[in-house]
Every structure is written in structure tokens, then in C-alpha cells.
Amino acid sequence: MSVTPNPLRSGLEGDRTGDACAVVIFGASGDLTKRKLMPALYNLAISRVLPGSFAVVGVSRKPLANEAFRGEMREGVSTFSRRKPIDGTLWGDFEKGISYAPGEFGDPATYEGLRTHLEAVDKERGTRGNRLFYLAVPPSEFGPILRGLRQAGLVSDSAEGPWTRVVVEKPFGHDLPSARGLNDMIAATFREEQVFRIDHYLGKETVQNLLVFRFANSLFEPLWNREHVDHVQITVAEEIGVEGRGKFYEQTGVTKDIVENHLMQLLCLTAMEPPISLSADAVRDEKVKVLRSLRPMERRVVAENVVRGQYGRGFVRADEVPSYREEPDVAKDSRVDTYVAMKVKVDNWRWGGVPFYIRAGKRMARRVTEIAVTFKQVPHTLFRSPDGGITPNVLAVRVQPDEGIALRFISKEPGQHTILRDVAMDFRYGSSFGSNTPEAYERLLLDAMRGDATLFTRRDEVEEQWAWMDHVFDAWRASGVTPPPVYPSGSWGPEAADDLLAKDGRRWRKP
pLDDT by residue (tens digit) across 477-505? Predict the structure, then answer.
């Protein structure tokens, strides 16, 4: 077999890339492919880190010829790529590896045709039989696709020879039984080592940098415990509402949409012990230990430590916006949560007694995701300050936007008098490394091609997250799911969320 060398790959070190492979995207005509997946692959091509022999095969019900599919993908890349304008020469080389295989997901003929198609791709592109199947479809489609792949002999579970992997998008179930059922369905076709459950938050640069910050610096890790930390706040706030996803949100709410996955993963990375290595399982083992250390949320505890909310009418960036109940496809008497705040305890030696306050919300005052570690006050105040106290030191990890890390501490103002001022040492990715930071899907797709599952969630992680969260949902159901308090759009949530911290003598940060 003769394979034409890829001009995009000349002069590169092999250890920066994955194996030659074909990425097969089920649901290729959907928004995820146009907005995230294809722009990510294109940007990997620009960065010259794609495997030397590479192809993309789109699979969807929509009848399209190869050229029409390539045209749609180019339009998506032109619109959503972080690098603009599109490089015509590079795209010309990149699109040679893009093809399309239409078919119904439940039709065995689709997979017979796909097998023939992939055999041709192997010969043309030198992809060596390696397959990365990406399920960019709702979980209801997983069963037919997995069954079709298995029956057509498109899945290899051998440790030798060509490899097969599958990338699964969230949601990973809607409760513990459904998550287990979904995992069992996947396990009937793929070994756990072949499964990559994607949570795009784990691909963000600042989230990855949290491990480096903690475990590559000797300054902070000795302070990262109950002896020095007063409390931790983790915030995932969005300015947008449900953005036309009323039907979806009526089934989920913000707790299932954000807290159960994204926010819990941020908590794990903040609270985990140092892993014995950076292997995928070593890192994920430590995250699972955190999940198993979470204090169970009994019904009485939920009532005292969890606050729900739903956005009403208000103003975001001076624009008037509707309430949640005025959104399309939302019930006029909906009791769905668009805001939730919780006080969480991690019952282990490192964090015993340290509260973790977590919150997530739609239509908030601003878009921000951050982890804020507040350290304990000094034991004895030697200096006077204008408000009679000294602001505690805070280490804030900004995940988005303006990715970076800031450390707030007390300094003296210049002059003859001792006047204290709260100041910050502020590291920003944009100013230090340039503003064109790779997006999450770029890192995660490349890791999947490399076979590195460190930033993907393992089966036991998913099930432990649901096992803990189900206590909260059970308590809500038992209480009759009373209507959540309404908070104005453009605010920081309901007053009850402020009370949650106030009764502990603390308050939320205003990021």
C-alpha cells in the first residue's frame, strides 16, 4: 500500500500526535459537529498535531454527497473556528480526508456500508484500521449505533493490532439507574479502556493547569488543607438563559445540566490528593476517592444546605430579558431550577470541617466560572484597617472567561501612614501565552486519538456522582418540589443563597 505523505505533517515529532486513524462522527449533520468538532479538528491541523494519516467520516440520516458535506463543514469552520479567516490552502489538504456515509442508525445496512467505506478510507488515507467513533447524538441513539457497530464487526477489543475507541457525549444518564444502564449498554460493545466519556470542562486550559499549579509548585500544596483553608467557593455562572432549549431544561434543570457533571469535576480536581502518577487511572482514582468522601445529603441536610432558584424578568448588560417561564417550550407553572447553591462537606483528613460552597445559575450578573480558595484569617491582627478587619487571602482560579489565577493579599499603601489595601497578583493566560488558547474539544479529541483518558470520566466516576446527587433529587421529590424562589435576571441569585453563607458568617464572592 502506498500512502501519499501529508504535507501538513512534515518535520514533526511523532510523540506529539496520535496514531493514524479515522474519526467517525455519528450525528455529523448536527450543530455539535459544525460548531465544535470540525473546527477543533481543523485547528489541530493548523497546529500540525494531527496524525500523519488521518480521515473524518460523517454518518447521519441526511442524504448528502461528499462535496456537499465538505461544503457544510467548511461553512461551520469558517463561522466557528477560533482561527479566522480559514486558510484555503490548508483546508484544501484537510478536506481531502473528509467523506460522508449516510444511513439510518437502526438499519444494519448502514453499518455494512460504513465498513466498506472505512476499508476504502484505509487504502486511500493510510488509517490502518484504527477507528475513533464519536457519538454526537442523544443517548436514545446509543443502543442502535452500538449494536450496529458490534454486529458489523466494526469493533475490535484486541490489545494488539488496529484499535477501536468510542467518545460519548453527556448527559450520562439522568439518575443512578439510568447511568448504570447506559454504562452496561456501552460495556456490551466496548471495554472500559476503549470508552472516552467527554466533559468539555476538563479540556479547558485552566482546569488542566489546576493539577500543574497544585502538584508542580511547592508553595501552595502544603497550605491546601483544613489547617489553612477556611472555605472553598466554586461558581459556574452564565449570563444566557436556556437559549431555545426549553424542552431540554424542563427535563433536567441546572442541577443535572451543570452541577452533576461540570461542577462536581471541578470540586474533585480541587479536593483530590496527589496521584501517584499522571496516568489516566491514577488521576481518576483520586477523583473517585473525593466523590466517595462527600457527606451524604440526607433529607434534613438538603433542606438546610441546598438552595434552588428560577430566573425571572430582569436586565442583563442593560438588555431586558424574559423570565424562565416566558421562554419557549417552558411550562407557565414550571418548578424547574435554573439556579442552585449547595454547602458540601468532604469527610476526609485533608478537608474535614472545611465547607465547599458550590453554585451554578443561568441569567446571572456575568458569565464566570471560578474556583476560589479562601484562607483562614491571621490569628492576631496587628494592623488597623478602614473597616475594622483584614480581608482574608483568596486564591481564585478563573476557568472562564479571562482564564488565569489571581492571589489576593494585604499590602500597605505608600505613604507615612500604615493604610492597608487588598491587592492582587494576577496571572492571565492571554497576556502570558497569547490570546489564541486551544479550545477544550481540541485537547480532548487529540487525547482520544492518543488513547490518553486522563481528562475523560470513568464509569465509576459517573456512577458515584449520580449516587451522591440522587439524594438531593430524592429529597426534592419527597418535599413535593415546591416552586423555587424567583431571582431577577442579571443578579447573583436568590436571597436564600446569600443566607446559606451568612449563617456561617461568610458571603459569596462577586467575581
Answer: 888 767 899 999 999 999 999 999 999 99
CB crowding 358-376: b at 16 or more within 10 Å, else e: bbbbbbbbeebbbbbbbbe
Lowest mean pLDDT among 207-211, 236-240, 351-355, 366-370: 207-211
Q: Which residue out of 117, 200, 231, 262 is catalytically annotated?
A: 262
Whether the pLDDT of residue 464 is over 90: the answer is yes
- Using CA atoms of 260, 266, 267, 270 in order, give the dihedral in degrees to the nearest 10: 170
Interval 38-58 mean pLDDT: 93
Is 231 annotated in the active site? Answer: no
Cα(396)–Cα(405) distance, integer angstroms: 6
Q: CB count, 10 Å around CB of 401?
A: 11
CA 467 remoteness from chain centre: 19
Could you give the C-alpha distances from 368 to 150, 169, 231, 442, 491, in angstroms and in order? 42, 23, 19, 21, 13
Q: How confident is the model at residue 15 (pLDDT cuts 50, 70, 90)?
A: very low
Instruction: Quote the strand ranges of 278-362, DSSP E.
Output: 306-312, 314-316, 319-321, 339-345, 355-361
**What gap in Å lies between CA 126 and CA 326, rounded to an integer?**
53
283 HSE (CA, 13 A, CB side): 19
Closest CA to 467 of 352, 297, 315, 305: 297
Helix (H) or strand (E) run with residue 362 in it = none
Q: How many angstroms separate the CA atoms of 71 and 163, rounded?
A: 30
Indicate the burial class of 101 (C-beta count within 10 angstroms; 0-12, 13-18, 19 or more).
Answer: buried
pTM score: 0.90
Q: Are 426 and 404 in contact (CB under 8 A)?
A: yes
Three cell numbers, residue 76: 461551520
Per residue, what are the HEC states of 430-473?
HHHHCCCCCCHHHHHHHHHHHCCCCCCECHHHHHHHHHHHHHHH
Q: What is the pLDDT of residue 2?
A: 38
Task: Answer whether residue 255 shows pLDDT above 80.
Answer: yes
User: For residues 30 and 136, what is the distance between their CA atoms, to the nearest angstrom?
Assistant: 8
Distance CA 281, CA 208 (A): 16
- Find, among 206, 272, 195, the residue nearest to 428 by Cα: 206
- Any residues with CB less than 8 A from the CB of 417 and at least 6 apart, and which? none
- For the record, the C-alpha cell of 472 comes out as 438531593
What is the pLDDT at residue 206?
82
Q: Give the N- to C-terminal CA distance of the chain in Å, as an integer.
A: 58
Using DSSP's 3-state secondary structure scheme, residue 196 falls into strand
